[in-house]
Amino acid sequence: MTRHTRPPGPPGAAHEARGRGLRVVVTGATGNIGTGLLELLREDDRVGSVLAIARRPPGPPERRAAGSGATDGPAPAGDGEGPAGATARDDKITWLRADVCRADLVHHFEGADALVHLAWLFHPSHRPSVTWRTNVLGSTRVFRAAAAAGVSVLVHASSVAAYSPGPKERGVDESWPTHGWPASAYCREKAYVERILDAFEQDHPAMRVVRLRPGIVFRHESAAQQRRIFAGPLLSRRMVRPTRYPAMPDVPGLRFQTLHTDDTADAFRRAVLTPVRGPFNLAADPPVDAKMLARVFGTRTVRVPARPVLAAVAAAWRLHLVPTPDGLLEAVLRMPLMDTTGARTELGWQPRHSAEETVEEFAAGLRRGTGGPTPALAARLPGGGRARELATGVGERT
């Protein structure tokens, strides 16, 4: 794959010359990365307007956008979103409630200079056909609609999870194989979308396509959402307080990379505005391991073989006690460390938060049950909080 080939001129230069700034569309705009990216795009004078697309946009409707009727119909009840359609929170960002699997995407993408595709489902983990529909088939619809609408820049949120198993003692560059880990639906889907983009780039050489592959992305405001996604309702705030966590399992292979949401969002903003193409690894130093996690959570490490840990997680997942299957944990134990030279040199990107600072901030958010400003990041689910998580089925909720 050719990487970092510079096309002539920046994206949307003609639009900037007319003084209106770039028009950017963001799918999955209410999530952890999406909310951080919207703030940066709002503050950037080179961006004239942003269409933020989500199944559950925040706040009550204030203004309908043109064509807002082409949405996905009623969203799941009780999540705090307004009626179907688009709303605007300020002069730059317009919200559209839509499902990438059902909405008239070409209509909404027309006139856009750049598209950032972040929409992704982690759950229901017990029904992989549902996540495949959104993550693979939905992504395919997004890419095709972008081409049909004449969008010149596509930035896709891939992941370290797309990579095949690799080394833990050194970083791999973007040429490392992206076949994922077959036991994890999340990894299979990320890897499959990489194959879709391979063909898409061949068919649409004039479009500038950028794939960003971040490590695990954390921040204070994502704590409640990520506790729901990965740990479930049985992980209490008391359990993650210093000295309360009994021990940190030191499992062979437990060495991974993370980065702060703000730094991730900055890389996506740069990918929109910088004339580069191809894949870029994103991660902060140093790699996270059991010793770092033990320091953050105020406990000690205990060496544990991987097999019984994976078996315990598998049993808990089958019993709907935890939302994350053992295949994803096994993928974390096998995924490689990444070399981020490309992002630092080609994008001019530099993380402002170290990995340990990021984990410490996230742990503080877990202890407080901190959430964010959108339904996806809410501190608790409306109508019951953790009780509702249990009632709706751990690992089942979309």
Describe what this molecule looks like in 3D:
- Helix content is 35%, strand content 16%.
- The chain contains 13 helices and 16 strands.
- α2 (32-43) crosses α7.
- The chain is globular and about 55 Å long.
- It starts with 12 loop residues before the first helix and ends in a 7-residue tail after the last helix.
- The relative contact order is 0.16.
- The model is unreliable at 4-18 and 61-84 (pLDDT under 50).
Number of strand segments? 16
The chain-level mean pLDDT equals: 88
**What is the H-and-E element order?**
HEHEEEHEHEEHEEHEEEHEEHEHHEHHH
Radius of gyration: 20 Å
With helices defined by DSSP (H or I, 4 residues minimum), what is the helix count? 13
- Uncertain regions spanning at least 5 consecutive residues: 4-18, 61-84
Largest sheet: 8 strands, mixed
Instruction: Give the overall silhouette.
Output: globular
Class inferred from helices and paired strands: alpha/beta
Q: Could you tell me how far the N terminus lies from the C terminus, measured between alpha carbons in angstroms?
A: 34 Å
Query: Considering DSSP H and I runs of 4 or more, what fraction of the residues is helical?
Result: 25-40%
As laid out across the biggest beta sheet, the strand order is 3-4-2-1-5-6-8-13
Residue share in β-strands: 15-25%
